[in-house]
Design goal:
309 residues, Rossmann fold, 16% strand, 2 domains, eight-stranded mixed beta sheet, 10 helices, two-stranded antiparallel ribbon, alpha/beta, 32% helix
């Protein structure tokens, strides 16, 4: 919590730096309230950043206005968490998926727009496409609705898709289908994803790189296999400890999560944000650790490792 002109405010995103490669999925993982969705909205320019740069195709889009900003937004689309609230219940699927084309004035005629919508529905495996296009959202299952959301994001042929917990509200039985669909679209269309989640189990299925976010800062980043198999930051270790145990014969075993119960959830004003909950916190942790390379392409912000000093 910080104070300015007698008003209190929280730095929801503080000094975050990340790179999403073309055709790759960057997973942003962390608990609720860590700043993941805020960061996605900043990338979309739905929230204006207080400082810093957002470089897209070599240009700083924080300086974009008017037509330049509208053109940028055709290249960056979002898939929302809730497939029930993100679709207008009064609109048919045809109109829902066509809406971005109308807003951004893409396609020259109504016939072309219809063709684009049916093509998008086919890409997300909603068939027969003409029958699906004529339905209302309440006539579809949760998994089908999320496919409609994906089709709506694809219809403008974007380069980057921001996916905010896209499977967290779906039945377990359909989560794998949606993740497989997204992974196939990434490979066939050369899409880039910023995939936001609190679930590292699903992150491994779709991600190429991962950034672990806590209290507005990225505390660890690297190739996803490297980070998940050799977690360095104590918070990353605690997130992995919290993953549900899939083996039935282990369900009765007590699971130890490496995190300290703290009387306060207020963020420290300086130093490591994880200070009050870390099992290994030291006096030096009251200073800000650097995000530094501990292994090849694997970076961590923690004083346990000499490179962070």
């Amino acid at each position: 919590m910080f104070h300015k002109n007698n008003q209190s405010f929280v730095r929801a995103v503080d000094g975050v730096s990340l790179t999403i490669e073309e055709g790759k999925a960057f997973v942003l993982a962390g608990e609720s309230g860590s700043g993941k969705t805020t960061l996605a909205r900043i990338v979309l320019r739905a929230i204006e950043p207080d400082g810093g740069s957002i470089i897209f195709d070599g240009h700083d889009i924080t300086k974009y206005e008017g037509s330049k900003l509208r053109n940028f937004r055709t290249n960056v689309q979002m898939i929302h968490q809730d497939p029930y609230n993100s679709l207008d219940p009064r609109m048919r699927i045809m109109d829902i998926v066509m809406e971005p084309l109308n807003i951004h004035k893409k396609s020259r005629s109504k016939k072309e727009k219809i063709e684009d919508v049916l093509e998008a529905l086919e890409k997300v495996r909603l068939e027969p496409t003409t029958d699906i296009a004529d339905k209302f959202p309440h006539m579809l299952s949760g998994g089908q609705r999320q496919r409609v959301s994906i089709a709506r994001s694809l219809v403008l042929k974007p380069k980057l898709i921001l996916a905010d917990e896209p499977v967290s509200m779906l039945d377990v039985s359909v989560r794998a289908e949606i993740l497989e669909l997204m992974r196939n679209l990434k490979d066939t269309l050369k899409l880039s994803y910023l995939y936001i989640t609190h679930d590292l189990a699903t992150a491994r299925f779709i991600g190429d790189d991962v950034g672990i976010m806590y209290a507005g800062k990225i505390v660890e980043v690297g190739p996803i296999e490297q980070v998940l198999l050799n977690p360095l930051h104590p918070y990353t270790q605690a997130l992995l400890d919290a993953i549900s145990e899939p083996k039935v014969h282990n369900l009765e075993k007590e699971k130890i999560i490496r995190i300290k119960q703290s009387e306060t959830r207020e963020r420290p004003k300086t130093g490591c944000r994880f200070f009050h909950r870390c099992l290994y916190s030291m006096d030096i942790c009251k200073s800000d650790p650097l995000l530094a390379g501990e292994e090849e392409n694997h970076y961590v912000s923690c004083f346990i490792y000499p490179m962070s000093i």
